[in-house]
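Protein Record: Sequence and Backbone Structure Tokens
======================================================
Scope: a single protein chain, as residues and as a discrete description of its fold.
Tokens: labelled as protein backbone structure tokens, with as many entries as the chain has residues.
Position: the record begins directly beneath this header, with no further notes in between.
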Amino acid sequence: MGDMLSLSDFERAAQARLPGSTWDFLQGGSGAETTVTANRAAFDRRVLLPRVLVDVTKPDLGTALLGDPVRAPLAIAPMAYHRLVHPEGEVATARAASGCGLPFVVSMFASRTLADITAATTAPVWLQLYWLRRRDALADLVARAEAAGVRALMLTVDAPRVATRLRDLRGGFTLPPGVTAANVDPAAMAVARTGESGSSIQSHSREQFDAAITWSDLAWLRGTTRLPVLLKGILTAADARLAVDHGVAGIVVSNHGGRQLDSAIAAIDALAEIVAEVGGAVPVFVDGGVRRGTDVLKALALGADAVLVGRPVLHGLAVAGAEGVTGVLSTLREELEEAMVLSGAPRLTDIGAALVR
């Protein structure tokens, strides 16, 4: 851990530890992986415009997300099957979230139970959902999430089915023995292990995800729960307006980390237009390609309320379990604080559009 000075250090160390097929599943995107590359390039082409002679002696990164105080405008993005990279899986990730004081968005396809995950953290836990054809199974999961203390639901809306991911097809990716979706009916997950051809994850999505849902279906989901419902996968101002009009509690600007529609717009490129359309009606989050504290600062300057961090969390988990995730999150927070200080914006309220070009 002493050699882990940046998120790229964790990435290299994780790759050295993981089997090739697992690494490709984590890192890969859809199609030619154009959008994976675009997410990163969109951050790199933006520059910061620092102000000087500002009192920066007391930087403050604290904020509130969905009413809960957090130590920084960061959260762990939903990613499936953490036990692919570490035996403790999401429980280790939850402990790190607790220590760092940051929300953990647990994937519907988590490999540890919601009860175990929420018991391991004092930080807010949100649950990500896909819309299953079996609404009874979806409603049951929502009820169990409420009982476990989950604070919000995040519906992924850019995946009526899983896109073609060539790395998974070439490697014939399947879940290894002992790694299951611990919170989903086992009968609904059978295809994820026994798909007849290509990627079992892709086969499962085509069997179990409901591709027929529309905006009108959101009323059913909101009616099944007292929890706030956010939508993840919004990339246009038009859809952002519809989301607000349909009563969602928040929006995540996201292209699924480049794992769904290839050639989709980079999330950070879509952010400012969506923020302007929403006009503060609901919080707006963003994910995709975040690897440095300056990336987070750029996203905040473009109007994001917080940034979700994905693959780097699994890199840290693979390297050193909860300690590794803590290292990733702490590094990113420290880099953000330094970027804010050096930009002359020591508090979140100091960050505005004039800071980035």
Notes: The chain has a mean pLDDT of 94. The radius of gyration is 19 Å.
